[in-house]
Amino acid sequence: MLEAGMYQEKYRVDGKTAFITGGGRGIGLCAAHALAEAGARVIIADRDAEALRAGRQTLIDLGHRSVEAMVLDVTNVGDVGRAADTWNATFGSVDILVANAGIAWPDTGGEEMPDEAWRTVIDVNLNGVFWSCREFGRHMLGRGHGAIVTVGSMSGLISNRPQRQAHYNAAKAGVHHLTRSLAAEWAPRGVRVNSVAPGYIDTAMSGSGLRGEIGKLWLNDTPMQRGGRPDEIASVILFLATDAASLLTGSVIVADAGFTIW
Ligand code: NAI
Fold it and tell me: What is the pTM of this model?
């Protein structure tokens, strides 16, 4: 039962292939770095070609040799399906999916929410996660193994203040329950599905808010009194993707500097 080196091995993903959506920057790029450092071949996918190019270069500059990049919009289900087929055929398997691509929308009150705002946020943040899980999950189920990590949010658990973002909150709550639902279906077939729910993280999405007036309100509501760094979310993603998390499926791990305690 106890073997020397067993824990070092559990946290490795040598020989595995990981596909990360929204991998051009922020949390997705950090997750790619984490997984590559733990031994995986990584494929970053992003709809922003320039972010993708810069992100790939960053990973190469960090010393990672097996880094692929593809332009992909996760709302295009046909393209997501083709990406899953292509990379599974190219590398034999895609063992890890990080369904991370997401957007925020400026403060939008429910009573005046434009149709476009609602539809777009649900389309990227919930539908895009489902398409990614379905298309990559199908291959994993065929092989009988795989690990999927979705990126939810503490906004799927609480309603943020003072900004109004019913669309974002609803989408992220949907991601959490989608995660649990797929986990239950796919657990007997060897595929684990878990989620990380970040608090405010210093990326392009929340960085200016954290440093602005609204950030003072956010940090006042945060026991640790600070925002998170994207690498602090990448560590959780890495854990969930490895055999160290072999007993976890359907879990939503909250990493929020304590925000949801209060
Ligand atoms: P970010 O804005 O730095 O990065 C998001 C990436 O996703 C960008 O490179 C963007 O081009 C890409 N993307 C957006 N829509 C896409 C689409 N349709 N198809 C493919 N790629 C697309 O944001 P960040 O902070 O790294 O966010 C990553 C995930 O973490 C998102 O799902 C976000 O909702 C979630 N999150 C972020 C928090 C934060 O405070 N930064 C808090 C809680 C959750």
Answer: 0.99
**Residues having CB within 6 Å of any atom of ligand 1:** 21-22, 24-28, 46-48, 51, 72-75, 100-103, 124, 128, 151, 153, 198, 200-201, 203-206, 230
Q: Residue 174 and residue 125: Cα distance in Å, rounded?
A: 9
Residue 76 structure tokens: 């295009």
pLDDT tens digits, one per residue of 169-221: 999 999 999 999 999 999 999 999 999 999 999 999 999 999 999 999 999 99
Annotate 181-220 with b (16+ C-beta within 10 A) or e (fewer). Answer: ebbeebeeeebbbbbbbbbbbbbebbbebbeeebbeebbe
**Which of 88, 179, 199 has its CA nearest to residue 133?**
179
Q: Pick from 156, 153, 232: which is nearest to 199 by CA?
A: 153
- Asked if 132 contacts 20 with a C-beta cutoff of 8 angstroms, the reply is no
Alpha helices, H only, the chain: 6-10, 26-37, 49-61, 77-91, 115-122, 128-143, 166-186, 207-211, 213-220, 230-241
Between the CA of 5 and the centroid of ligand 1 the distance, in Å, is: 35
